[in-house]
Amino acid sequence: MIIKIDESISKALEEMTSESDAIELLRDLEYNRGLGYIAIEISKSTCLRIMKSLDDNDKRIENFLKKEKSKITFNQELFDSFNFKLYVYHSDFHQIQLNDDSHILFDIKNYSTKKYSEGFYTPFNKPKLITENSLSDGKVLKKICENHFRNNFNVHDYQICIERKNGGGDGTGDEISDSDTSWLNLFSIIDSDKKHPQDNYGETAKKVIKSYSELNLLHNYRVLNVHEIENLFPLDWFLKKANQNQKDDIILLKRIYDLDNRSLFYYDFKKSFGYKAIFLKESCALASYWKPIFETTLEQEKIEKLAIQSSATIGSNDIKILGSLGTLFNAVKKDFLSNKLNNFQQPNLNNEWDELSVWMIERFICSKPCRF
Predict the structure, then answer these.
(1) Are 107 and 89 contacting, i.e. CB atoms less than 8 angstroms apart?
(2) Which CATH number does the domain 128-229+342-367 belong to among 3.30.450, 3.10.620, 3.40.50, 1.10.357?
């Protein structure tokens, strides 16, 4: 995450009443910058003014600032391309008012006292990503981000730094609220669970949004524009790993994609959809969206066979229109994480990867580790 150091920090360092706040801040920034957990944006004038106020006991801070000063010109173009930053300032010397709410403000007034109080967590340590399911979902998201970063940013001194945390499905919202870390650098990416364009977000997404809204951190979460993380993978990758029965289903999904290229954002790859839910509930929004799609892409013989099979089921039991691709997804995911799958052309999915990656890069870009 980019930490933008406001000029008020240099002013705080010059005043006896606030000097300890500025020094404690600078020590924490130097330490976490050295570990490769943050990136620093600072103007040359602020940097020089801080260095001028340091005493002989602050050599590590001085070395840290010298290194940042040497890269200011090169870094500025990169930093200017990002919208999301954590602004560090001292309210006794500057009342910051931003034109938008896409940044986080962190006032260091009384920082030296707060730092050692119970329940305080620094926002400058390793940024964290909570996903609602397995930690491997976090691995997938990180790799998507890293691939985009490597292919689109010609910078050698920076990396993507993420500590992955598993939110535990429906308990993800509680995990955020009860987290034993700073909320300022705690981010979450969650499934939408939407099964058609007009559908509501799932319960997990709603709880996560509520948790961050109560913290007034509306830019610390992202709800995927797809049903689940499975929907982020292109059909061609599924096809490469599929058995014959699975291939038939994927070929049908390709026909669905050709008919409506956003429809696969809402398809349930794990469970598919039941015949009754789609063909026998016409007043339902799910059926209203998917029935015309399946009627256009399924062969009539297949629809008639599903109708016969469904009529033999009792109560809420239902016959799935297509088979589950959840196990196949795990195989595709394994190949993706081991660099066996990379490039693809599925335009709306390419765009989704790009937008997701930019959102993540803004929050997880960090300088590479170094010693001061």
Answers:
(1) yes
(2) 3.40.50
